Amino acid sequence: MSTRTPAHRVSLSTALQDGLAPDGGLYVPERFPTLGPEAFAGCTTIEAVAERLLRPFAEGDGLADVLPGICEAMFGFPVPLREIGRGTSVLELFHGPTAAFKDVGARFLADSLARLNEGAAQPLTILVATSGDTGAAVAAAFWKKPNVEVVVLYPKGKVSDRQEQQLTGWSDNVQTVAVRGVFDDCQTLVKEAFQDEAWQERLRLSSANSINIGRLLPQMTYYAYASLRHWRAHGTRPNVIVPSGNLGNGLACLYARECGLPIGEVVFATNENRPVTHYLETGEYEAFETQETLATAMDVGNPSNMERLRHHYSGSGGAEALHDAIGAERVTDEQIERHVRQGPEAWDTVWDPHTATAVEAREHLDPDDEHEWILVATAHPAKFPEVVEPLVGHAVDVPEPLAEVMARSHPVPEVDPTLSAVADVVFEDRRPDATEHA
Ligand SMILES: *Cc1c(COP(=O)(O)O)cnc(C)c1O
């Protein structure tokens, strides 16, 4: 249902295809199933946990029959929960193709949309504006999937070299366009395309941004799987710290707890951007101007999932209930730098700048090591060598899947920030007689 009109109820398939509700609200589950640890008896792999967890959400939907196949294909890489001492474990969500947690949501959405569009006369075209990491995850997930294609717009010269290599390693049904402008120009172009008649006529457009519930729900699997492993090994509920920006990953953790999984406290670690901590402190939501920090993927002044969070806790005791349900810790760049620098010695781990916010929250909240914590590692440190390498004093090896993506990088068309310039390359590529890209 929509956050703004509870009576507006749609199937899971419709929510995935539409992204945003027609009233401008965000889709949220109407209710949550009750799935305690006993409901997962016999579910030992993460794929089995995903299927058990997501099944109730697909009940009665066209996706129900194909859900096992989608869950089976969603990972294809490990999700280690690594104990690092002092009652602390790290949940490594960075073993996918683009080395950050967004791979799983993007892969679930890609597979679902490919299956939902089987037999369609025309493929669905996903249009994405990216400042770096989301576009890479979406491109990787949709690459070579049938019935769907992707156009990625990124601001030329405004992403790091390594990010650019992750955005330009695609072909076939994934087209990347470098825009001579900033991220906001790319976002404006996407909005214009959605409102443009020629685009609407030529293509069936859709989006895959982080407000799509199809990216959020599968991320619950991370928290189900990790908390079950902890519960089975120790019989206790771990607290979880989630590095957060738009709150999609953090909300997935709350939703998993809502389903009955054995999760204790949930803490959102943020960088210096204050909307989340301000909201939890005061109970009043206020958007802030976005501040640039070392944890760039969390530079969000007005988190899109705040609407889901507020909806979830509306009318259930106000600020106090919210305060009891969630913690939040705001972390400075100086603290991020300190934890990246000290990581190898203090925790025998090289942290990426985003995960470093969780480390600060962990040490600040529990200096005496009295509780059990899961720190969520959202990205591999090799994604951010400019920040990490000078602090740890050595090069960080690029994991194999990411190295493969980057090795495929090739020049892409560069255009002025106008819709007609983008249309020239996008439509040129789709002329009936246009030859396939190599
Ligand atoms: C996207 C991202 C985040 C923030 O996740 P949200 O779901 O937007 O809160 C944190 N770390 C990394 C590495 C990311 O890519």
TrEMBL record:
Pfam families: PALP, Thr_synth_N. Pathway: Amino-acid biosynthesis; L-threonine biosynthesis; L-threonine from L-aspartate: step 5/5. The modification N6-(pyridoxal phosphate)lysine is found at residue 102. GO terms for biological process: threonine biosynthetic process. It is an enzyme of class 4 (lyase). InterPro entries: Ser/Thr_deHydtase_PyrdxlP-BS, Thr_synth_N, Thr_synth_N_sf, Thr_synthase-like, Threonine_Synthase, TrpB-like_PALP, TrpB-like_PALP_sf. Its EC number is 4.2.3.1. Residues 92-362 form the Tryptophan synthase beta chain-like PALP domain. Gene3D superfamilies: 3.40.50.1100, Threonine synthase, N-terminal domain. Transmembrane segments: none annotated. PANTHER family: THREONINE SYNTHASE FAMILY MEMBER, THREONINE SYNTHASE-LIKE 2. This is Threonine synthase. It comes from Salinibacter ruber.
